[in-house]
Amino acid sequence: MKLAAIDIGSNAVRCQISSVLNQNGDVIFKKVEYIRYAIRFGEDVFNTGYISDVKIEKFIKLLKAFQLLLDVHDVDHYMICATSAMRSSFNAPEIIERVREEVGVEIDVIDGETEADLINKVIFNYLDERNYLHIDVGGGSTEFNIYVNREKMASHSFEQGSIRHMHNRDSKELWESMREWIETNAKKYHVTRAIGTGGNINKIYDISGKSGGKPIYRKQIEEVASRIAEMSMHDRITKLLLNPDRADVIIPASEIYLSAMKWAKLESMIVPAVGLKDGILHALYERYHPERFVISSIS
After folding, report:
1. Nearest-CA neighbor of 70 among 297, 293, 298, 284?
2. Rounded distance, CA 160 to CA 158, Å?
3. Which site among 27, 32, 157, 212 is 20 to 30 Å from 68 CA-CA?
4. Residue 71 and residue 75: Cα distance in Å, rounded?
5. pTM to 2 decimal places
6. Closest to 55 measured CA to CA, from 101, 16, 8
């Protein structure tokens, strides 16, 4: 069986196709194809409220290409989810209708709570007896979740993300709201470690030299962010080999992660390198084949 997840984010669109394997009764998702294209809807939406015609045309072509890829791989089931930028765009309904007519696929624009719930489906596999603050920073929104004994106790989605922050489309009031929510709930639930998801924290983790699921410490995140901030965009791309659409947002994103850890008084974070696309695959499997195998991990 093959499943596909398409994640339409504020910074990039991701498509992943995975085979579902039975490993001694457990479900393993084996990646077959993965494509990431930096569409940057957030730059348009957070500055003008609309997605530009140029990006709409590229988006239609991209989805047609994805549709062909799904056909070639004989994908059994797929799901297409759009997040913050599409939620905030005034012309999103017209784009969704055009995609329906020209490409023949449905886009599900999900709210922050649903986005967090999908990501939580895979985060659960990485939790232990510690009390965790989960921080997921996207281009247009940031989701916070608190886990106690692997059970979600509190959650909140804020319209704050790396692209919004980079373009100064946030406010002191928003930062204060995030700080208040984290400080209140971190104290209430006695959180002891962070768990971070999102492309930027994954890249920071890689640059730090961490591997093997070992935690990264707040000081190390600060050191990597400081090192990157001192580099020109050219050096970030040529020396650190960052994609251009990663090179400019990684510092704004790091400020959100570090602020959240500081407010929660946390010194360490685990970075499992999973995200919305993995949660979508998990949800697809649960929807169509809940009786087949037990999902114990996303690999």
Report:
1. 284
2. 5
3. 27
4. 6
5. 0.90
6. 8
